[in-house]
Amino acid sequence: MSDLDVDALLGNPDIRIVVCCGSGGVGKTTTAAALGVRAAEVHGRRTVVLTIDPARRLAQSLGLVELDNTPRAVPEAAGELHAMMLDMKRTFDDVVLAHTDAKRAEEIFANPFYQAMSSTFAGTQEYMAMEKLGHLRARDEWDLIIVDTPPSRSALDFLDAPARLSRFLDGRMLRLLIAPARAGGRSVFSLVTASFSLFAKLMERVLGGQLISDLSGFVGALDNMFGGFRDRAEETYRILQAPETAFLVVAAPEPDAVREADYFAGRLAEERMPLAGLVVNRVHEVYAPDIPAGEALAAADAVEADDPVAAGALRVHARLVAQVDREQAVTLRFREAHPSVPVATVAAQPADVHDIDGLRKIGTALSADPVNLY
């Protein structure tokens, strides 16, 4: 069971992308930001941190008022560090502008279905994350791109984006909806056989003729771009499988978080994605490990009458020992299930991290010897 060498990972010029994934509330965004700060300041790498999580914790911790779809320099960092937050509609708009003419782009932007899909459609965020990551990598401007993904299992949804897009583009119903745009605007239902007429009427009744018209217009306007969407998504998927990419699963030493970490590790193995290690945040330490919990409680009872302060301290120690035992047990289960996955640990901090100095401390903790959980 090896330990994760974070500095070797960040300092390796062959590693160009680090993807942090994990469940919510485990310090994943803080970990991504701390890795970015350390990569830029300690290893001298030109680094950009891309967050897909719409929460604004990354901007706050980096001392920025806000983040948007364009990389912003972090002025408080000593090295070349930039940060950005995915704006899925802006990214979709940029893709349209880059791959069609101005007149066609105007038609697409005005289409109600496009307006809904680019803002709220399920899966659009993950697919646009693939587009943005692919765009950043293609620019070859950064030594290292660190991706902070959304919380929970949706963090790996972007791995499914190419397959979902292919199913969407190749679906029979979508082909029917494309047909009127290719046939001079005739109704979609005039292009199918009479045996389909009953289903057609049902579709109009359920979805509404205007929605079908909007969808047909949207598909027709984007038809010449679909192949490019799919090709770029699949190219980014291949990049995520390449040796230049490293996935870090972030967890807390708690049953639910470690179960999610186990899921992530298994899914990455199935997809042949390079898992570099597990980061366990908020690990507690015992500073008097030679005093078991039972002895501490017995001693507390013995001195309660004469020294209640000492008794209270002994009971706190006993609770901490019990907590550490639980953390060791739950984290050891991951270790046993994935013995080849290196692990780095970060001790629980006395306060939330909210500035560059705090991120530097986390980066130092990540690079130090791991807390002994075993």
User: What is the straight-line distance between the termini?
Assistant: 10 Å
Low-confidence regions: 181-200
Count the strands?
8
CATH 2nd-level architecture of the domain at 6-166 and 227-288 and 338-367: 3-Layer(aba) Sandwich
CATH superfamily of the domain at 6-166 and 227-288 and 338-367: P-loop containing nucleotide triphosphate hydrolases
Shape: elongated
Key terms:
374 residues; alpha/beta; Rossmann fold; eight-stranded mixed beta sheet; 16 helices; 8 strands; 11% strand; P-loop_NTPase; ATPase_ArsA/GET3; ArsA family ATPase; ArsA/GET3_ATPase-like
Structure explained in plain terms:
This protein is α/β, with parallel strands linked by helices and about 375 residues long. The chain has a domain at about 5-165 and about 225-290 and about 340-365: Rossmann fold, CATH 3.40.50.300. The chain is about 55% helix and about 10% strand. InterPro entries: ArsA/GET3_ATPase-like (IPR025723), ATPase_ArsA/GET3 (IPR016300), P-loop_NTPase (IPR027417). It holds the Pfam family ArsA_ATPase. This is ArsA family ATPase.
Helix-strand blueprint:
Elements: H1 6-11, E1 17-21, H2 28-41, E2 47-51, H3 57-61, E3 72-73, E4 81-85, H4 88-99, H5 102-110, H6 112-120, H7 124-139, E5 144-148, H8 161-170, H9 172-182, H10 197-207, H11 209-222, H12 226-241, E6 245-251, H13 255-270, E7 275-283, H14 293-303, H15 308-337, E8 343-347, H16 356-367
Parallel strand pairs: 1-5, 1-6, 2-4, 2-5, 6-7, 7-8
Antiparallel strand pairs: 3-4
